[in-house]
Amino acid sequence: MKTGFLKRMMVLAMVLLMALTCVSHAESAATDTQRLDTYYSLAISYINREDFDKAMEYLDACLEYCDETSNPDLCADIHLKKGCVHTMTGDSGNAVKELDEAIRIKDTLSEAWLVKTQVYSDEGKLPEAIESLEKYIEMTGDTGMYETLSQLYQQNGDAEKAFEAYNKYAEGSSDNEIEVGYRKGVYKMGVGMYEEAVEDFKPCLEDETYGVSAAYNLGVCQMNLGDYGSALAAFNQCAEAGGDYDGIHYNLGVCNMTLGNYTEAIGAFTASIDGESYKEDAIYNRAVCHMSAGSYVDAIADFTSYIDARAAAAQPEVAEGEEEAEPVNTVDVANYYRGVCYLSNGDYAEAAADFTRCIEGDVAADDSLFNRGLSYLQGGEFESAKEDFNACIKSGNSADEARFYRAYAYRYLGENENAIKDLTECIKNEYNLSQSYYQRAQVYNDMGDSDHYVEDLEASLNF
After folding, report:
1. Which of 71, 80, 370, 380 is most buried, by CB atoms within 10 Å?
2. Confidence tier at 282 by pLDDT (50, 70, 90)
3. DSSP state of 461
4. 10 Å Cβ neighbour count for 362?
């Protein structure tokens, strides 16, 4: 907001220079007029150079040759310029004093109200900023400033007034109904009024000027509403019409992924990786799609790229001669999912390593502990598996499932009695009864107990 106001002020200074110095020539003696014009011109030059001390020096000098009686217009303008300088140097108290003085001398000086808006906005005095800007709009009829007024109301927590002000801005900016509707839609989308924005964008879809961008924005709103099917249609319409917005491929990927269209999603995320600014997220989501489609090798490659990129970006730069800092821990859910892919692909040591990272980094720690137990079990590290399942049972984390798989570890370790105890507890708790009876039968068979072996085999058929 500050930058926008200052640009307006600089333009204003140049316009007033030409207009008001002509007045001073007409009303002053030639020598004094020339000196006043010189001081004024120097003040404006130093403002443009951002040498505000010099600018203020020459503005003060102007007032020695000009007062509100001899030339009220120019006197008011000089106080306005002093207010501008104080604003740009952050001296809000003196800025307001000078601007109030300018308004006292010339109550039609609308620009002073605009600069007061800037001052109050910089101070966070939003009600005062709103009041000043409303006064400026009232005096000038500048409907373009309703957009800024809307922003001030929004910052002040008055959504209704903000919406009302933006409507005035949109309606005053054009006679074209489609353009007005499009601008209203953009505003509503920006403040999270997605359902209302959808209704504004729909009539714009076939418009030659706004149709493509309306389709893109419509898709964004529908995504935020969770309507991924409609969003997908909108993004496709945008793409087919030549829309090349940064993020369109990424959004197509998200919609297709959410709808379970993994092949299409992978293609869209690949296009995003190749040409958009969402590369890191696109790689992650493509990995999820590969994993969901059962392409574990491709998923592992993408998760690894994502993990490596995050790690590289997080490491602090080390100047020459300095010691390297401790690596930043960047473990996140991607490590967990990569572990799942390793486990599913039979890469048990790599899976256990990723689950260990997650446990140590407190990322899906309970699930990681259980899955590490599975990784150890599948990899033949039965003691390690037993320890992880022990911890799961102790904490109540998937306790029956952990008992079921701990029974495997006991069996492979020759601890058949303990395996029987675990499977019996699973049966008591009605956990996966068919498999629990079946596995207990195998343990009884290992023990040479044919009666219980047959009994449990028969029981397994009941479920």
Report:
1. 80
2. very high
3. T
4. 10
Joined tokens for residue 458? 């028969």
Statement: residue 101 has pLDDT above 70: yes
Nearest alpha-carbon partner for 218 in 174, 236, 151? 236
Nearest-angstrom CA–CA distance, 383 and 417: 16
Torsion sign over Cα 69, 72, 76, 78: negative
On whether the CB atoms of residues 354 and 339 are closer than 8 A, the answer is yes
Concatenate the DSSP letters of all residues of 364-403 into one string. SHHHHHHHHHHHHHHTT-HHHHHHHHHHHHHHTSSHHHHH
Three-state DSSP class for residue 203: helix
The beta-strand segments (E) located in 96-186 are none
Position 29 pLDDT exceeds 70: no
Rounded mean pLDDT of 112-133?
93
Q: How confident is the model at residue 9 (pLDDT cuts 50, 70, 90)?
A: very low
163 Cβ neighbours under 8 A, 6+ residues apart: 150, 187, 188, 191
Q: What is the DSSP string of 297-351?
A: HHHHHHHHHHHHHHHHHHSPP--TTSPPPPPP----HHHHHHHHHHHHTT-HHHH
User: 3-class SS at 178?
Assistant: helix
Indicate if the pLDDT at residue 154 is higher than 90.
Answer: no
CA distance 135 to 113: 7
User: Would you call 85 exposed, middle or buried from its count of C-beta atoms within 10 A (0-12, 13-18, 19+)?
Assistant: buried
Nearest-angstrom CA–CA distance, 344 and 198: 42
Mean pLDDT of 117-124: 91
Helices (H), 174-227: 177-190, 194-201, 211-224
Length of the chain: 463
50 token code pair: 């951002």
